[in-house]
Write a structure and sequence with these properties.
640 residues, six-stranded parallel beta sheet, Rossmann fold, 4 domains, alpha/beta
Length: 640
């Protein structure tokens, strides 16, 4: 037995947690990220100061940012390691809710310890306390409940034991992984209890490869055996199962092409002859061509988001059937699929035995190569894409000021696709690419190639702006010997880049590739392509009529980051980009390359539709036309 505070017991418990996967044992909790406030510093903070054990203490600059760092760290470690996050009550706790939702959507283990109000209530309302008149039991931390896989509040020190064992249950469960919130009442953090020694014993949580039941294997095999043109969709579950090579071997054996989701990219190799690349709304021509004709779609470790299915319109074969392999029964049931609930690698092995016995082979002849040739030609065009000096192709419902504005800001004008292609060709093959929101995820799912596994860290389950730079730091903490690049729009940079400072503090170099198109370019495209005016999506001053349609705002992001101690570059030409990329490789501190890219020069289309809410009644003809297009596409799409 050991008498200690709840905070001290928590630190000691976390320091003794391990996971075992495929016989390899790994220390599970690397450390704790925190922005200390009054609700956490005197309880958990005292414990970390007195004896942190082997836990590292990291100082965040923004609670949401540090939680994104932790989530990315867990993802880059394929969920075998985590960094916990602790905050004060109120605003600090609230800031982590977005990160909790992001982690849960992406099935990433994220352990959060927001401080809470006093369990005894004597000093209520304490500083930063959120009060609800209808219930004094409600605090800010109740807002975590909808976005976490497990939630608890510690109102007595002995409750820590059952709470943390349940937290570990969820954090190490492949089928139910996500954010865990354990709210710590700030007075209870400092209260003592005589904890049993068994609570602090080394715990090894075995992550098991659960294989699907034989009956389910027979079910999905019977569907696949009827397929002439099957298609595999490789999702994030392939990555976390470390099943990439198994998927490739399976595809080769049965001549089945495969496509990637954002989470599945880099789990399978881009150069594999059966890899069609990204699929869906942000997919390419090759994957989408094959998807439209597929008679059986085999989803492995994917939750079939609307981008993967083109709002359930992409798989257009009238006789198409769906098969799923997923650890999560909820996801396995998507699209009314015939399911096999289990680990991707283990389930594929059992499925292989059945298909081999039946001597199965798909009926593809040259369709795969034809589709890939179409996309290879388009890739060559995108990589060389330039815009004439008059910029007229970029002018969509803008006034006469636009051309001279762009000439002044962008010089001769770099396009987003040519810049992306050049970067991919001129950074290390094992460099890690991190991105999350805006138009870059679409361009990168189509154009980015990954022939080193687990080098593509795209947060697109929640498409959370602000993840990019924090996520890059998380990947760097996990893989310190690799170069890490954050692909970030100017809108995302303005939203959250505070952990760039933490990268300097930790001496963990990351490289920020900032694509500045002076606004929220992706959403500007969406609104204008659906007949809506240019409203509050470009960064413009307010004009004399009170509208946000004045001159474009020119921001020197390189100068901004230089103030933090970052090595920065300003780029308007390919020559400047070439110099910046090469010179940044020589640096030991974090770098930022401020790249001015022309608006409207990203990828688009390739035969996929996205269902968004279009006004059914509107005065503008463009909106009316967009609504007609929506109705027609919706008519052809699956309804569940």
């Amino acid at each position: 037995m050991a008498i200690m505070t709840m905070g001290q017991a928590l630190v000691r418990f976390l320091d003794n947690q391990y996971v075992r996967f495929d016989g390899v044992e790994t220390k599970f909790v690397e450390g704790i990220f925190t922005v200390f406030g009054h609700g956490i510093v005197c309880g958990l903070g005292q414990a970390l100061d007195e004896n942190p054990g082997q836990l590292k203490v990291f100082q965040g600059k923004n609670e949401q940012g540090m939680a994104h760092v932790a989530a990315s760290f867990a993802k880059q470690n394929n969920r075998r390691k985590i960094i916990a996050c602790a905050s004060s009550i109120g605003p600090g706790a609230c800031n982590m809710i977005t990160a909790a939702a992001t982690a849960t959507v992406n099935n990433i283990p994220l352990l959060l310890f927001p401080a809470d109000t006093f369990a005894i209530r004597q000093p209520d309302p304490v500083l930063q306390q959120f009060e609800q008149p209808y219930s004094l039991a409600v605090t800010t931390n109740d807002a975590y409940k909808p976005v976490c896989r497990y939630w608890d509040r510690i109102t007595r020190p002995e409750q820590l034991m059952s709470a943390m064992i349940n937290a570990m249950r969820v954090l190490t469960d492949p089928s139910n992984c996500g954010a865990v919130c354990v709210a710590l009442c700030q007075d209870v953090e400092a209260e003592s209890y005589d904890y049993p020694d068994s609570f602090f014993a080394k715990r090894v949580h075995t992550i098991v490869r659960n294989s699907a039941a034989d009956e389910e294997i027979e079910d999905i095999a019977s569907v696949i055996l009827s397929a002439k043109k099957p298609l595999i969709i490789a999702g994030g579950g392939v990555r976390y199962s470390e099943a990439g090579s198994a998927v490739e071997a399976f595809a080769e054996k049965y001549n089945i092409p495969f496509a990637e989701t954002q989470s599945g990219k880099s789990a399978v190799l881009s150069s594999h002859p059966l890899n069609l690349g990204g699929v869906g709304v942000t997919g390419n021509a090759a994957a989408n061509m094959i998807a439209k004709e597929a008679d059986v779609v085999i989803g492995i470790g994917t939750r079939f988001s609307d981008f993967t299915t083109a709002s359930k319109s992409l798989y257009a074969n009238p006789d198409v059937r769906f098969v799923t392999i997923n650890t999560d029964r909820f996801d396995a049931y998507k699209l009314d699929a015939v399911k096999a609930v289990g680990d991707a690698k283990a389930t594929l092995a059992k499925l292989d035995a059945v298909l081999e016995k039946a001597n199965y082979k798909s009926s593809y002849s040259n369709e795969i190569e034809t589709a890939q040739k179409v996309w290879a030609d388009e890739m060559a065009r995108l990589s060389a894409y330039c815009v004439d000096d008059n910029f007229e192709p970029l002018i969509q419902a803008r006034d006469e000021r636009t051309i001279p504005e762009m000439q002044e800001i962008f010089g001769k004008g770099l396009t987003q696709t040519q810049v992306l292609a050049y970067i991919r060709q001129n950074i290390a093959p094992d460099a890690i690419a991190v991105a999350a929101a805006g138009s870059l995820p679409g361009c990168m799912q189509r154009m980015w190639t990954s022939d080193v596994r687990d080098t593509y860290n795209m947060e697109y389950g929640y498409s959370c702006m602000g993840y990019e730079i924090a996520g890059a730091l998380g990947s760097k903490l996990a893989e310190p010997d690799r170069e890490v690049y954050a692909f970030c729009g100017d809108g995302s940079y303005l939203m959250l880049h505070s952990e760039l400072v933490t990268s300097i503090q930790e001496k963990k170099k990351i490289n920020v590739l900032l694509f500045d198109n002076i606004g929220f370019g992706c959403i500007n495209n969406l609104q204008m392509s659906n007949g809506i005016g240019n409203l509050a999506t470009e960064f413009r001053y307010r004009d004399e009529n009170g509208q946000l349609l004045g001159d474009l705002m020119q921001i020197d992001y390189a100068m901004s980051a230089a103030g933090y101690g970052v090595k920065t570059y300003s780029v308007k030409t390919m020559e400047e980009l070439a110099f910046a990329l090469e010179d940044s490789k020589k640096q030991s501190v974090s770098t930022l390359i401020d790249i001015k890219v022309l608006p409207k020069t990203m990828t688009d289309g390739y035969g996929a539709w996205w269902n968004v809410g279009i006004a059914s009644v509107a005065k503008k003809e463009g909106v009316q036309e967009a609504y007609k297009n929506k109705v027609e596409n919706f008519r052809k799409a699956r309804k569940y």
